[in-house]
């Protein structure tokens, strides 16, 4: 079986990363969570006071982009790579509801996208990669052999994210999470640069009623056909 490039796009909390990690482990591929990169840039902007509840100093963030160094490092205990911002492990911080509430605004900035897309394409050069995000099949890897577009109802997605955050001890409410999911969907699908859309050749999977195991089997079959 030849090594291929797998692009998984879709709305927030559709289980993209769970599926992508499962596939990468099974196939011996590299997994890249592109959302983690947008989240890390957002954390940088928050730490430096460039973004907050009612302000966003885009220009200063753009001018500071060269100070941002991102890399992934594999954690054998967890079985996946964690995100590092300027050599600091930020895997936990980038999943907070605060970062989630600002990330789509940061992801609208073309200069940010340009920097991250370049790095993502570099990581994909060796093939044998599964990357998940919003523009992987449309912009990052338009020639990917397999493109999957995942959807689920907003309620299902908010409940999943809420359960995940609660399990981590976050004191967030379901309503906050539901609002965040809806806001991000809106910004992600309406932005001018690389909006979230299904690539013409992507295969759509609605997993509202699909178990993780059934979904995995279905996608694995698609991988076998594409390899
Ligand atoms: O995948 P995740 O939910 O962690 O992504 C966080 C946010 O990062 C998304 O809501 C979106 O605004 C942005 N993003 C993006 N393009 C990607 C991946 C994520 O714009 N390829």
TrEMBL record:
Any one GO molecular-function label of the UniProt entry: kinase activity
Domain Cytidylate kinase residue range list: 6-224
Keywords: ATP-binding, Cytoplasm, Kinase, Nucleotide-binding, Transferase
Binding sites annotated in the UniProt record for ATP: 10-18
Record-listed E.C. numbers: 2.7.4.25
Entries under InterPro entries matching the protein: Cytidylate_kin, Cytidylate_kinase_dom, P-loop_NTPase
SUPFAM superfamilies noted in UniProt: P-loop containing nucleoside triphosphate hydrolases (SSF52540)
Location of this chain's protein in the cell: Cytoplasm
Catalytic activity: dCMP + ATP = dCDP + ADP; CMP + ATP = CDP + ADP
Broadest EC class assigned to this enzyme: transferase
Family in the record: Belongs to the cytidylate kinase family. Type 1 subfamily.
Name listed for the protein in its UniProt record: Cytidylate kinase
Organism lineage: Bacteria, Pseudomonadati, Bacteroidota, Flavobacteriia, Flavobacteriales
Gene from which the chain derives: cmk
